Queue: 2 jobs
Job 1
Amino acid sequence: MKRLILTTLAGLVAAAALAQAEDPQVRRQVENFYHEWDRHIAAGDFKALIAMIDPSFAATDESGHTIYYKEAKAGLESTLKMAKNAHSKVTVDQVQAQGSEVVAWVHTKVSYRDAANKPVVFTLRSAETLRRVGGSWKLVAVQLIPKNYGG
């Protein structure tokens, strides 16, 4: 039931957002944010990645489980230490701005080699909130979108 409610809400938000025109300048800024994110992943630069995340950060998975900044920071650090040849490719599908925040609907492909040197590859879809803080964008929230939802 909870999953159905989250899926329905995500669909309503996405439908409302698609009715609004994107701001091309904001879209470029958001795309640049994610290009920077991808570069820091490839470099294994944990400090630079953490600097891109707001301390109020929260991420919710498809089942409704939420983690916050401290857990996300620890998980990211652990993964970067373990992963070899890590790469991410974030593709921005849609951007909607409201004041100092934007919601970006993105696809992210992640690949790396694990501790046993086996390849790991996965793709995520999410709605992510960025907030303008002190002249730069910070990642504030991530809501993973269920794999069986929409196109």
Job 2
Amino acid sequence: MTKGTFSYGDERFEYQVFYTPGRQDNIAIHVHPDASVEVDAPEGEETSKIHAAVLKRARWIKTHVERARTQKEHVLPRSYVSGESLFYLGRRYQLKVNSENYQEPGVKLLRGKICVYTQSKDPKIVKKRLAEWYRSRASDVFARRLHEILEQVLWLKSPPPFRLVTMQKQWGSCSPKGAILLNPHLVKAPRECVDYVITHELCHLQEHNHSPRYYRLLGQLMPEWRPVKARLDGMAELLLNE
């Protein structure tokens, strides 16, 4: 991966270039919902040719970046009251805070709703209950998906340890000791997005950077990873919103 910049009007834009081994078609430009600009190019393509393609679509890029920024401004902080939308494994659910007929604190998934049972409707308490529930679900879901994905990973002799770490801007990472760190908020995303992040980090246990070899490895395990990554990037503002 490399980076580049260009100016249009009075603003400067940054773009990332991803080189895809075996890509035969033309250079493709994407503006993701998080307003980032990504360029897909054949491996070995000349930098000058890539930059020329970007400049040719500068106006289009600016328009779509501005549209993405406007949409991001409408993502409001959560109030943790009944009726709000929540996500779990890519599906949208309605939050229901229930303090009546209270028995014990907890969270249940019932008929299209995420129901929080609590003595108090204090948003801080509701938020805490939800965080605990998401973390528990994440632990179970990630363990199952990691076990299944590892069946395709031939370079690992034993399953790597993983742990949950809440991160503001990352879905996952690898520790220096080879442990996989996963953001519990990722359990709000579709299963294919969970699989992408786990696969992404597993590949880093073999290739520690984003070299062409790394992307070849990722492509072997998950050939259609690019649209999945784009989908996850597009949902980031909603899923990470607390």
